[in-house]
Amino acid sequence: MAGTVEQKLGAMGIVLDEPRAPVANYVGFVRTGNLLYVSGQICITGDGKVVAKGQCGSAVTVEQGAAGARVCAINLLAQVKAALGDLDKVARVVRLGGFVNSAPGFVDGPKVLNGASDLMVAAFGDKGRHARTTVGVSALPADAAVEVEAIFEVA
């Protein structure tokens, strides 16, 4: 039976796929003590489709980028489930770090990252409120518009 957090996700129409395997020399997550570090996740679906491709501010709108960030957050949660077996073991979302594939002069990266932040709060309530950094970059793997990494406090 799914825990409380997965039930909330299910009510939002979100099903967690098996996390994608890393594409280089790293692992999807590392747990040390009560902290779980999850490697950056791009906005790619379980069937391999990049949902927001290109630079925000030119080929990708803020809204499309935010939708991509939401997919990144879903992928983060899939990694957490793989690490812990149950999302209810998350005590707090500590930090999100976001990278936005940005056209020159694009300054709305924080609005793009809200797609990930909003999902964490919807899933975890007050435990989902977190510190955050948003950085504009000139390119990301698979020409994704956004990538998000995270740190979770876990039980």
Supply database-style keywords.
5-stranded mixed beta sheet, alpha+beta, 155 residues
Strand arrangement across the biggest beta sheet: 1-2-5-3-4
Mean pLDDT over all positions: 97
Helical amount:
25-40%
Unreliable parts? none
**What is the CA–CA distance across the termini?**
19 Å
Task: State the secondary-structure class.
Answer: alpha+beta
Number of helices: 3
**What characterizes the major β-sheet?**
5 strands, mixed
As a percent range, the share of strand residues is 25-35%
Please identify the oligomeric state: single chain
- What's the Cα radius of gyration? 14 Å
Order of helices and strands: HEEHEHEE
User: Judging from the principal axes of the Cα atoms, what is the shape?
Assistant: globular
Instruction: Tell how many strands the DSSP assignment holds.
Output: 5
Task: Please outline the helices and strands.
Elements: H1 4-11, E1 29-32, E2 35-42, H2 62-84, E3 90-101, H3 109-124, E4 131-137, E5 146-154
Helix pairs in contact: 2-3
What does the model show?
This protein is of the alpha+beta class. The chain has 3 helices and 5 strands; from the N terminus they run αββαβαββ. β3, α3 and β4 form a beta-alpha-beta unit. The longest helix has 23 residues. It is globular and about 40 Å long. The mean pLDDT is 97.
